[in-house]
Amino acid sequence: MMRNDSKEWNVELIQALFGATEVYKILKTPLLHSVREDRLVWKHEQNSEYYVKSAYHFVVDEAIDTDFLLLNGK
Questions:
Q1: Which terminal CB of the chain, N or C, has fewer other CB atoms within 10 Å?
Q2: Are 27 and 49 contained in the same domain?
Q3: Residues 6+ apart with CB under 8 A from 6
Q4: Has this prediction a pTM greater than 0.70?
């Protein structure tokens, strides 16, 4: 989605592939010139590696709203 010759978004390609909401979000994402290489990082592990177990704990502990269970006495 970035231009090959520079660290800039390829706006025309992004607009052709995504809807207006997604285009807005993508283009608001800054491209830092100090970052030379992308890498995948899972922020829920100290070593930044993804594990199904940590994803499960994230979903159960943070992503799912379980307040309704507490309100209903479950």
A1: C
A2: no
A3: none
A4: no
